[in-house]
Amino acid sequence: MAPRDEPQEKSVGANTIAALPQLPAADKPRHPLAIPVTGIFLLLLVQALVFASPFLIPVTSAVLGYFILNAPRRGLSKLGIPAPLSAGIFTLTIGTALVLGGVMLSEPVTDFVGDIPRLIDEMVGMAAGPGGIFESISEAAEATERALEDESERPMRVEVVDNSGIATSVATIAPGLLSQVVFAMCLLFFLVASGDLFIQKAVQVADRFEDKKNTVRTVHTIEKRLGNYLGAITLINIGLGLCIGLGMWWWGLPSPWLIGLMATALNFIPFVGAVVGSAIAGIIGFVTFQDPWPALGGFATYYGMTALEGQLITPALVGQRLRLNIVMVFLSVAFFAWIWSVMGMVFAVPLLIVVKVVCDSIPKFRKVGLFLGDAEGFQPGEARND
């Protein structure tokens, strides 16, 4: 009986093993060089972004413009207008607006920007001069300097006068800036004229049918959210500029329409734009009236309107779907300002929106997309569906 029982025991053992729940395979141990190699790659990537900024800035602006103009291009294609003609209409309209704006505003804007250093010097001189709010501090500093200074060994003071001015600076950067604008416009034309070619190529690269659908859905989501965000922000900033211009006119500041135009442009830069614009308005008011109260009024009016716009108007009009983690927005603005200067600050939020949409569409990075959003934008139902 033993020989007959042995196969039975083996059979029972095999069935028992098959009935046991299959445990997931153990995670493959991470290579010890994975973290150092990733860190080196990130450092090289940042260095490449800084080094290639003259090329990447116009490319980024053209790609963002392509996402924004794709939906209008599809609308025109339904009316029988081909993609190349739509691209020509868009680029011609943008180029004409840039040229007309540059011609009409070049002289007043140049004078306004060139006067800002002079206004700051005048404000400092008034504040530290006789009757100024920093007069006592200035006198104490001068007395300390005289006490520590040996008259017999006083060094000769040499003042270096820079006569270059704002005109020379503009003439220096104008050729490079113009070439970047032309390159961005040409690339935008070819991208829009290609229609959905890049989307089709991205779909062809994907292997599974679900991945193909997810790619199309992701691109359409980027187009929708970027269009909603930039369209709403542009209209809001124009309205904000008008309100600030009226407020500066009410305070009696010179060139209130230029201050309103400055507010419209600066408000595309999160955080920094409001502070810089408010400070400039306060400086202009202080130098104009030589009184701190109008300067404080201009500063408070400007900053109060931008705060009202940022805390109430923009969240109400832009909507919950575009809410972002405010800390990540700040870090994004700081990072892109470091690598791409002013244009980086303008691109920071649109690029963060693109990154969040891409992360939300990839299951592996969905937690990153959730982290990039704020608490009010989090929908528990969406997490369950994921």
Overview of this protein structure:
It is a single chain. The chain is built from 14 helices and no strands. By secondary structure, it is mainly α.
Structural class: mainly alpha
Amount of beta strand: under 5%
What are the low-pLDDT stretches, counting only 5+ consecutive residues below 50? 5-14, 16-20, 377-386
Largest sheet: none
Count every beta strand, where a strand is a DSSP E run of 2 or more residues.
Answer: 0
Q: What overall form do the CA principal axes indicate?
A: globular
Q: Using only CA atoms, what is the Rg?
A: 30 Å
Order of helices and strands: HHHHHHHHHHHHHH
Number of helices: 14
Which features would summarize this protein structure in a list?
386 residues, mainly alpha, 0% strand, disordered C terminus
Brief description of this entry?
The chain is mainly α and about 375 residues long. It is about 80% helix and about 0% strand. The chain has 14 helices and no strands.
Q: Layout of helices and strands, plus pairs?
A:
Layout (H helix, E strand, L loop, with lengths): L1 H18 L14 H18 L1 H26 L4 H46 L6 H14 L16 H29 L3 H9 L3 H43 L4 H11 L5 H18 L2 H27 L7 H36 L4 H7 L7 H6 L1
Helix pairs in contact: 3-4, 3-6, 3-8, 3-12, 4-6, 4-10, 7-8, 8-9, 8-11, 8-12, 9-10, 10-11, 12-13
